[in-house]
Amino acid sequence: MAEGDNQDEFALPPRKNPDLVGHEAAEAILLDAWRSRRLAHGWLINGPPGIGKATLAYRFARFVLAGGGVGGLFADQAPCLEMDPSEPIFRRVAAGGHADLLTVEKSFDTKRKRIRDEIVVGDVRAITPFMRLTSSEGGWRVVVVDCADEMNQKAANALLKILEEPPDNALLLLISHSPSRLLPTIRSRCRALALRPLAEDRVAGLLSRHRPDLTPGETRSLARLAEGSPGRALRLDDAGGLALYGDMVGLLDGGAGRGGLDVAALHGLAERVARPNAREAYATLMDLLSQWLVRLVRHGATGGATADYAVIEGEGAVIESLLARASLEQWIEVWEKIGRLTVDVERVNLDRKQVVITAFSALEATAR
Questions:
Q1: Which of 138, 137, 143, 192 is closest to 170 using CA atoms?
Q2: Which residues pair with 102 in a beta bridge?
Q3: Distance in angstroms (rounded) separating the CA atoms of residues 295 and 249
Q4: Neighbours of 35 (CB within 10 A)
Q5: What is the pLDDT of residues 322-339, one digit of tens each?
């Protein structure tokens, strides 16, 4: 369900992952559409990152390329989209060697010698000649776009033209974390299939099984922070997210009026995540801070027990203190300011250390 080369099946790359957890309803919709013989040519598989969208897309792609089950012999009887990893079609898809499957994703920029930040028009234009070819195995040709949100404007327009006049027996599976970022005309030409976050106990169960080195407390905390995304739980664990979260809440505790921000601790944290080799730690910290503010506002708006929102011990008191010191509108403004700072780091190359200091200083100033 999450990207990676770990041989643990929970962390296999989507094209190699034979398992899908918690999305039986979405799988049933795809299976029913296939059986109806009225399969939509475009599907928009959407939902939060890390919950299994790409895994489902490749699972369905294998099923379709096999004609509906292994060899297409049991298309109407197949109980699900599952395929044994030992099957030739599974192995070819996993290896990226199936002639009737095309994956469109961010490509390598030979000039800058790195992966591009977006899917460009040249990547999308490869779809048209691919789809016009006759299937090498007499069946369907399938395109997976992972993820469609990353297309630039020209690429999106090129994809729209393909969706407007798709050839027969051609299937486009678009993966999207934020469908609202796509052109309305693209959304209207695809059948939407929304995947929901997994229940917290389901994520915790998966983590305890696949990361047995975690303590029960760490497992529960990661599951809560992941908000239904097993992939995000794994990434947080890999990035030292729990330690960063503890440091963050400690600073927020001071900023909530309990002696003021610990300046030395703030500078130490900012320096740590601003190092050249700490980009992942910086991104994790800023993501956790943004998420924390969203949960703060959500709790202030809906009420309920603080324990439903707190992740670590003592955090509930910090939440209540900050809510008492400023209005929800003020906290939303802080969240928006931090969001703009985060974007500007990449857009105008801001200093990461200063961004962290500015973000926590804005929180303290609002709590005064």
A1: 143
A2: 143
A3: 13
A4: 14
A5: 999 999 999 999 999 999
Distances (CA, A) of 86 to 90, 92, 291: 7, 10, 41
Q: Are strands 108-109 and 170-176 parallel, antiparallel or unpaired?
A: unpaired
- Reading the block at residue 212, the tokens are 């047995």
100 within 8 A of 141, measured Cβ to Cβ: yes
Tokens linked to 44: 């928009």
Contacts of 65 (CB under 8 A, 6+ apart): 89, 93, 98, 100, 101, 137, 139, 140, 142
- What's the Cα-to-Cα distance from 348 to each of 16, 42, 266, 352, rounded to whole Å? 37, 37, 23, 11
65: Cα separation from own chain's centroid: 26
Q: What is the pLDDT of residues 261-274, one digit of tens each?
A: 899 999 999 999 99
Distances (CA, A) of 74 to 77, 78, 79, 303: 5, 6, 10, 51
Query: At residue 200, does pLDDT exceed 70?
Result: yes
Place of tokens 């007499």: 138
Q: CA-to-CA distance for 120 and 141, rounded, in angstroms? A: 22
C-alpha distances (whole Å) from 200 to each of 17, 23, 215, 367 are: 22, 14, 16, 31
DSSP calls for 287-306: HHHHHHHHHHHHHHHH---G
DSSP for 135-154, please give it: PTTSS-EEEEEETGGGB-HH
Candidates 72, 70, 57, 66; CA nearest to 15 is: 57
Structure tokens at 81: 């989209």
In Å, how far are 30, 197, 219, 312 from 204, measured between CA atoms? 27, 13, 6, 15
In this structure, are strands 191-194 and 42-46 parallel, antiparallel, or unpaired? parallel
Q: Give the predicted TM-score (pTM) of the model.
A: 0.82
